[in-house]
Amino acid sequence: MTILVRKIGAGFIGTGNIALLHTLGYKECPDAEIVALCDLNQKRAIAFREEAGLPASVKVYKDVRELCRDDRVDMVEILTPHASHELLAVQAAEAGKHVSVQKPPAMTLSSYDRMVDAARKAGVRFRVFENFRYHPPYVRAFELIRDGVIGQVKAVNMRMWVSIGTSGDYRGQKYRIPFHTLLWKNTDYHNYKANALFDDGYHKHSMIQGLIPQPVTDVIVWCGWQRVLKGMPKIDSPAVVVYQTRKSDCYGTLNVNEVPSLPLHSNYFTCDEFLEITGSTGIIMVTGCSGDLFAGCEAGGPGKPGVYWFSKEDGDIPPFPGAGSWKSDCGMPTDWSHSFIDCTRHFASCLARDEWFDENDPRPLWAERGRKILQLTLATVRSLRTGGTKVRVASIVDGPGVEAEPEKEQHGEPEEAEMATDDDAEEKETE
Ligand SMILES: NC(=O)c1ccc[n+]([C@@H]2O[C@H](COP(=O)([O-])OP(=O)(O)OC[C@H]3O[C@@H](n4cnc5c(N)ncnc54)[C@H](O)[C@@H]3O)[C@@H](O)[C@H]2O)c1
Fold first, then answer.
1. Is residue 11 within 6 Å of ligand 1 at its C-beta?
2. Tens digit of each residue's pLDDT (9 = 90 or more) over 235-271
3. Engineering a disulfide at 289: which of 273, 300, 409, 422 sits with its beta carbon 3.0 to 4.6 angstroms away?
4. In the chain, which residues fall in CATH 3.40.50.720?
5. Residue 9, ligand 1, Cβ within 6 A
6. 67-111, pLDDT tens digit by residue?
7. CB of 237 closer than 6 angstroms to any ligand 1 atom
8. What sign does the dihedral 117-120-125-130 (CA atoms) show?
9. Which of the four pLDDT bands, split at 50, 70 and 90, describes residue 315?
């Protein structure tokens, strides 16, 4: 048994919107603690230290080079806009710090490879922070599949609903997506102007590939390009992604619907997800992820967030002996924050014990796994930018390979393209 002389010291690079969720796993964590913060915006970092309840002994740096010189920092969490990840990860790795980088880890495969190479050369650990694979109900779905409860997985279908006017408690309304965050998220440089399929898509492609037993070989994207906020570029929603494998009876789909006025409840981002997995002898449904859209839908529907599965009965269980029946498990933590806590602690625990991830564990994205998901993600961006052409995942050797012109994509205008305001409503009435 390894006895820890001191806890692993974590340094956050970037103290913006997502950073607070990253602090949760360090609370009462036996293996690691936050010792330093770094942000180009020092005021934000200082305010963050206070909001997160971190002690004054947690140093605040403006320049990553200063943080890299801090001997108490053993690992960094890179929580900055995507295109800045490479430079920061390479600097940290070269300074001997282990690297955990938020998704999507990089804009291109070559950029990703430079981070991984730097970590390899420095002898430090590298992983992509992809928390959906750690969401406890999704972990339960992985276990059910591993135990053969629904036989061979044939299809994985994921749905996502996104709204604007969401209610929820976490940090209050004003912090949902701050303006400074929205600004870079809508650029080509940092996000390929593809919030749904690149930025958030990395999570979804990761889950779908994680659950499908075959490698995804091709993707096809249909997108309706919708403008939900006046003055902002159109977004890649509604969108449907079809994931093909070499087997014609094994595939995945993702369906994203941004419906600005949907009255959705989420304590975190203004969205929720629904996962449905069809196997050769059963079905798994997982409700509730970033939000809890199904809460209250108890009348015969899957009301509580959790895992529901329909599978074959061996015995004489009525009403259909020998047929299937529904079971459920809603006993695990279902709040989305647990995906962050568990993802944080898994890396910390490996570092503290000088162990590494088990390759049979479907959750962690170490270097090779994280790269495959990035390649798949970039394939969806290529399909998105080429009007829905079928893209072979292996054909992606660096970036998506196509310039963005999403504003010019024509699939017909949606009927209610813009978020209606009270002023708009008044104008319509007087017309
Ligand atoms: N896992 C999830 O569910 C999830 C959710 C949201 C964001 N993210 C990821 O987290 C990352 C950050 O997103 P965010 O929403 O917090 O962005 P943000 O804009 O709110 O915060 C980024 C912070 O990084 C700082 N920064 C930028 N460049 C820097 C540099 N070179 N050195 C130090 N600080 C720098 C900015 O000043 C800002 O405070 C992104 O990669 C994003 O995809 C993940």
1. no
2. 999 999 999 999 999 999 999 999 888 888 888 888 9
3. 273
4. 8-129
5. no
6. 999 999 999 999 999 999 999 999 999 999 999 999 999 999 999
7. no
8. positive
9. low
Residue 90 confidence (pLDDT): 98
39 lines ligand 1 (CB under 6 A): yes
Cα(179) to centroid(ligand 1), Å: 13
**What ligand 1 atom has the least distance to the C-alpha of 44?**
39
**Whose C-alpha lies nearest to ligand 1, atom 43?**
103
Question: Residues 352-372, buried b or exposed e (16+ Cβ, 10 A)?
Answer: beeeebeeeebbbbbbebbbb
Residue that is written with structure tokens 């309304």 in the block:
173
- In the chain, which segments carry CATH 3.30.360.10? 133-336+372-398
Q: What's the whole-number mean pLDDT along residues 213-235?
A: 91
Q: How confident is the model at residue 389 (pLDDT cuts 50, 70, 90)?
A: very high
Tell me whether residue 92 is exposed, middle or buried, using C-beta atoms within 10 angstroms of its C-beta: 0 to 12, 13 to 18, 19 or more.
buried
DSSP 264: -
* Contact (CB, 8 A) for 399 and 383: no
The answer to whether 35 and 70 have CB atoms below 8 angstroms apart is yes
Sign of the alpha-carbon dihedral angle for 367, 372, 373, 374: positive
Query: Confidence class of residue 164 from pLDDT cuts 50, 70 and 90?
Result: confident
Write the CATH number of the domain with boundaries 8-129.
3.40.50.720
Query: What count of Cα atoms within 13 Å lies in the side-chain half-sphere of residue 184?
Result: 13
